[in-house]
Write a structure and sequence with these properties.
Strand order of the largest sheet of chain A: 1-2
Distance between the termini of chain A: 51 Å
Structural class of chain A: mainly alpha
Distance between the termini of chain B: 57 Å
Radius of gyration of chain A: 27 Å
Shape of chain A: globular
Number of helices of chain B: 15
Largest sheet of chain B: 5 strands, mixed
Strand content of chain A: under 5%
Strand order of the largest sheet of chain B: 7-6-8-5-9
Radius of gyration of chain B: 25 Å
Order of helices and strands of chain B: HHEHEHEHEEHEHEHEHEHEHHHHH
Oligomer: heterodimer
Helix content of chain B: 40-55%
Number of strands of chain A: 2
Helix content of chain A: over 70%
Number of strands of chain B: 10
Number of helices of chain A: 14
Strand content of chain B: 15-25%
Shape of chain B: globular
Structural class of chain B: alpha/beta
Largest sheet of chain A: 2 strands, antiparallel
Order of helices and strands of chain A: EEHHHHHHHHHHHHHH
């Protein structure tokens, strides 16, 4: 039983040398025989004998309804709090005169990402104004800013927990996988039942989709801090709290920022799906244009999302690199 | 005896086979396991080569999809046609019909789709063949019956400014929330005009629900919690019927009766939606090459009773559209007057 490698010859039945090839033949032969027996006995397209789907889905429906009514004491204030925060940010972006926004973005991108991106920012933002996408773009910015701030607030503590405990890490991994691969429509409708139509369910759906990379990379960043550095810090008598706050987190910042960059990109990718529960902005423009069969309009609004994504991506990436460089310098 | 990896795999496969066979044997006695096979059989009957394929535009709402499923079952079982359905929204599917990618549309809503129909009609390739969904209604100013009972003064759209407090939300601030139509549907534009024509834009804000799924979820949630809510909806729909039977009903606020003049006045649309005409459209070439289908659809007439029966069954049995269609053909009578005696016999024999 000890030898499992298929490339080695092992002793099988007396007198027969079982090579990898013969074992493969036996295996596939058995599979063909299995298929032949099933087909012969039951015929093609056999019904699966146990069906529990409907009972299960009805039970889930009932529990969602139960949660929306009896969880109102928690859901309503949460929804209200997120909405007030969003309205604040939205008002700010609505108030912000476009020249100030453009100049601020250009300065930020010039300082971090260089001249190329600064020129791109001027051109793309001016074009968005000219295409009459400005108001929608600002609404989308507000949504993204709120979703990303909330994502970071969730991701950093959860990522730290996962970095410090292998158990948490093991439990968390399949959950994060599910969050990233579960089709968003599946949780959009329950989100409406929980938070009502509008921006709040959209923000929650965006967080579900966009938070995993920030959690994963926070976890990774802290785990990557080399053992020698941790050892050295310990030998100077740091407490675990000091070790985390003064050594591990600062060292992990570039990785965490890469995670946040991914989170922002994924949040932007959710903009159109979020519009299906009533979120405004560029996503709503795309949704409306597609319902009206105006592919041109949809493409232009979609390009608006791309422009925002490229600018934000380059700026945050460059900022992360800068931070990395200064860390290397410190070492 | 030492076993290699693949011998083990083979044993595993054998065990799985035994297990699967045992399961299947238990399932063999289960009477519920058989009907799907029986349903699938009739579609396999050979179709003469010259019969065109019927391609339905599968519009993305309940009544259209139920009607498509019923018409497809009748065409397949009774008339021996091959059918298909292409999913989409009103406007893309109108384009598909004009282009010939589909050849039947079971729900053309007039006047909602008046503009795109006027354009489509010019091509000369399309013709209206019969009536579809009857007894329909739509309104942008619907409140729950319990809200109407609690506020006896709220009877018409002109009363709305006095009751704005009922409908305020955090998102709309000082204004009341009027949940509107799906973005991109024709009713979205009409609802905006109505808000202005009634002078409600100072006190109410139209809120876009994003999609029909979200609108339905919001309504179910509000009615479950007995919240006051002002919204756009239409019927006959399964949700409107569910609200009637389970949540105490809807109250449509009074509006001036519809007229062509008010629709064109400045400001436009200071009046109710007209009763819509819901019609069946076919491509002319299909009317010629499938005259038996054209005759069937000309007699076809789907009233609210049919729609409610079908959507009730769908909700109760959590059935899909095909299952609803089969149930409809086996359990209701009215459709029997739409088809020829020959088709009726074939459909009856197919079960």
């Amino acid at each position: 039983m000890a030898i499992l490698s298929p490339f080695k010859t092992v002793k099988g039945l007396p007198g027969i040398e079982l090579t990898a090839r013969t074992r493969w033949l036996i295996g596939s032969g058995a599979f063909v025989a299995f298929c032949a027996i099933v087909l012969a006995v039951l015929g093609p397209a056999v019904e699966f004998p146990i069906k529990i789907g409907r009972h299960l889905s009805e039970a889930i429906d009932d529990s969602i309804e139960w949660a929306t009514t009896s969880g109102a004491w928690l859901l309503d204030p949460t929804s209200d709090g997120v909405l007030r925060f969003l309205l604040l940010i939205k008002d700010f972006f609505e108030w912000l005169p476009w020249p100030i926004f453009i100049v601020a973005v250009v300065i930020a991108s010039y300082k971090t990402a260089g001249r190329g991106i600064a020129i791109f920012a001027v051109l793309s933002l001016t074009m968005m104004g000219a295409l009459d996408l400005w108001a929608s773009a600002m609404e989308t910015m507000a949504l993204i800013v709120v979703a990303v701030i909330l994502s970071i607030a969730i991701a950093v503590p959860v990522g730290i927990l996962a970095a410090r405990s292998n158990l948490v890490d093991t439990i968390l991994r399949p959950i994060l996988d599910a969050m990233q691969t579960m089709p968003s429509f599946v949780y959009l409708v329950p989100a409406v039942m929980f938070f009502g139509i509008g921006d709040v369910p959209a923000i929650f759906a965006t967080i579900i989709y966009a938070v995993p990379p920030a959690i994963r990379l926070t976890n990774l960043g802290i785990r990557q801090v080399s053992a020698e550095i941790v050892e050295a810090a310990r030998s100077f008598g740091t407490t675990p709290r000091q070790l985390l706050i003064k050594v591990q987190i600062p060292m992990a910042v570039p990785t965490i920022m890469a995670g946040i960059n991914q989170t922002i990109m994924m949040a932007l990718a959710m903009v159109v799906i979020a519009s299906l529960v009533g979120a405004g902005g560029l996503g709503e423009d795309v949704n409306r244009a597609l319902n009206r069969f105006q592919p041109g309009e949809a493409l232009l609004s979609g390009l608006g999302i791309v422009f925002l994504a490229i600018i934000i991506d380059r700026v945050t990436q460059a900022a992360a690199k800068e931070r990395q460089k200064s860390l290397m310098g410190e070492r | 005896m030492k076993l290699g990896k693949f011998s083990k795999l083979a044993m595993l496969a054998g065990l799985t086979a035994l297990f699967a066979l045992a399961l299947a044997a238990c399932g063999g006695d289960d009477p519920t396991a058989t009907p799907t096979a029986a349903v699938a059989a009739p579609t396999a009957t050979p179709v003469p080569a010259e019969k065109p394929k019927l391609i339905f535009g599968d519009l993305n709402w309940d009544s259209a999809q139920i009607q498509n499923a019923i018409a497809r079952e009748i065409a397949e079982r009774g008339y021996g046609y091959e059918t298909d359905a292409v999913p989409g929204g009103t406007i893309p599917l109108m384009q598909a019909l004009i282009a010939g990618d589909t050849n039947i549309n079971m729900e053309l809503w007039l006047p909602n789709q008046a503009d795109s129909w006027a354009e489509a009609e010019k091509s000369g390739d399309l013709q209206i063949i019969g009536n579809s969904l009857e007894d329909n209604w739509q309104s942008s100013y619907i409140i729950p019956q319990y809200t109407a009972d609690a506020n006896p003064g709220l009877k018409s759209v002109t009363d709305l400014p006095d009751y704005v407090d009922l409908f305020k939300t955090t998102a709309t601030g000082d204004k009341g929330r009027n949940i509107g139509c799906i973005p991109g549907w024709e009713c979205e534009v009409v609802n905006e005009k109505k808000l202005i024509a009634y002078g409600l834009d100072a006190t109410y804000e139209l809120v876009n629900p994003g999609s029909m799924a979200a609108l339905d979820a919001e309504l179910v949630d509000a009615f479950t919690k007995k919240e006051d809510i002002l919204f756009y909806y239409w019927g006959p729909t399964s949700l409107a019927h569910k609200i009637d039977t389970e949540f105490g009903g809807l109250f449509l606020l009074e509006e001036p009766a519809h007229s062509k003049e008010c629709e064109a006045a400045e400001p436009a649309w200071g009046c109710a939606y007209p009763l819509a005409e819901v019609l069946i459209v076919m491509r002319t070439e299909l009317v010629e090459s499938a005259p038996d289908i054209a005759a069937f659809l000309a007699k076809y007439d789907f009233n609210a009773g049919n729609q409610i029966a079908a959507s009730n069954y769908m909700a109760e049995a959590s059935a899909d559209y095909d299952e609803v269609a089969v149930w409809f053909l086996q359990n209701t009578e009215e459709w029997k007057t739409w088809v020829t005696a020959d088709a009726l016999a074939k459909i009856a024999a197919s079960f």
